[in-house]
Amino acid sequence: MFQLSEEIAEKRAQAEEMERIRMELHLEEQEELARDRERQEMERRIRYRLELQRTEEEQRQHKEMRKQMEKEEEEEFKRQVS
């Protein structure tokens, strides 16, 4: 009888250990998913900032080119008038 209760207690302890391990694994998986989401969000923000910087640089260059063209046109006009 004593041996039977020991076996039952041992099987219960093993089952509890397996459940604890399953819960730990589940928690680790959830933490990994959260880290992945955070990393993806950070990458998205970085890509957005880089795209914004690129667009601003293109606009700046375009404005500078337009300004230079206007200056050249004005100089040409002055030469023609004089």
Describe the protein's topology.
Elements: H1 2-81
Can you tag this structure with a few keywords?
mainly alpha, 1 helix
Mean pLDDT: 95
By DSSP (H or I, 4+ residues per run), the number of helices equals 1
- Element-by-element helix/strand order: H
Structural class: mainly alpha
Structural commentary:
With 82 residues, this protein is mainly α. It has one domain (1-82). The protein is built from one helix and no strands. The chain is rod-shaped. The N and C termini lie far apart (121 Å). The model has no long low-confidence stretch (mean pLDDT 95).
What does this entry show, briefly?
The protein is mainly α and about 80 residues long. Helix content is about 100%, strand content about 0%. The mean pLDDT is about 95.
